[in-house]
Amino acid sequence: MEPAPLLVLVAPQDIVNIGSAVRIAKNFGLSGLRLVEPGIFDPWRIEGIAHNTGDLIERITLHDTLESAVADCVWTLALTARERTAKRTVYRPQAAAAELVARAAIGPVAFVVGREDKGLTNEELDRCSALVSIPTNPEYHSLNLAQAVAIMAYETWLTRGGERQPVKPPRKPAEPAPMALLERLFADWRRALWAIDFFKTRQEDHVLRSWREMLFRAQLDAREASLVRAMGIEVVRFLERQQIPLPPEAAGTGRLPATEAGPGEVGKPPSPG
């Protein structure tokens, strides 16, 4: 994976925001966190907010000025919501992340986030190589500190290849449902719908055709199809246990002989009584 940027927080006042930033930095693999004149710094409390981040918290460094916090960086990016009258290079998050990651190949880079209430001063913005502005509703453009950090950290993670992380496969892969099983499912649900008088005011062909189409679109695997089939079978079994008379179209219990039941199917008859 490509090198990760640093996160620099300037004068954060709320320890919850610091803890949230630590958690985000851990989530998206930032290389470290530097704090400039934090209002409070309590590693024990921070780890209570951001569990299992002790290794990252141990590497946090404290600085008196932004200048000292980014002294070793070859490129820095400042987050700001304010429009600038001076001519500055301003990126959107995705492009900013690409630039950060590209420049990280030659040395440390950082994105800088300011105070919860005022952001970064003009002097602090001047000390950063470029700016990034997160597009928001112009009628309410102020983002929470942790939200802004999360957006930029996420974009850098994607740029570094995070989206290529494999999605965890199912614990137990299942075979696709064979047509024979689906046809038994449809037959059992036809009996179940007749058993509850569903077709009393509806056309059977139209309903069953729509039911088939919905389940075909769902692309059920064998276990899922067996479960849906079991639901239809149990409707009829329940009515039988309650000794409720069934219409002729619902005759039969939907039970399969053991030789007919495929893998994972419901073929076992109910217990006596």
Helix content: 40-55%
SS class: alpha/beta
Radius of gyration: 31 Å
Proportion of residues in extended strands: 5-15%
Shape: elongated
**How many beta-strand runs?**
7
Distance between the termini: 63 Å
Q: Can you name the CATH architecture of the largest domain?
A: 3-Layer(aba) Sandwich
Account of the 3D structure:
By secondary structure, this protein is an alpha/beta fold. The protein folds into two domains: 6-164, Alpha/beta knot (3-Layer(aba) Sandwich); 169-273, no CATH class. It has helices at residues 15-27, 43-49, 54-58, 66-69, 93-104, 122-126, 145-159, 179-195, 204-218, 222-241, and strands at residues 6-10, 32-36, 61-63, 75-79, 90-91, 109-113, 130-132. Strands 3-2-1-6-4-7-5 form a seven-stranded parallel β-sheet. Helix 8 packs parallel to helix 10. The longest helix is centred in the C-terminal third of the chain and has 20 residues, at 222-241. The protein is elongated. The model is unreliable at 253-273 (pLDDT under 50).
Structure characteristics:
273 residues, Alpha/beta knot, 2 domains, 7-stranded parallel β-sheet, 7 strands, disordered C terminus
In short:
The protein is of the alpha/beta class and 273 residues long. The protein contains 10 helices and 7 strands. Helix 1 runs parallel beside helix 7.
What topology emerges from the helices and strands here?
Layout: E1 6-10, H1 15-27, E2 32-36, H2 43-49, H3 54-58, E3 61-63, H4 66-69, E4 75-79, E5 90-91, H5 93-104, E6 109-113, H6 122-126, E7 130-132, H7 145-159, H8 179-195, H9 204-218, H10 222-241
Parallel strand pairs: 1-2, 1-6, 2-3, 4-6, 4-7, 5-7
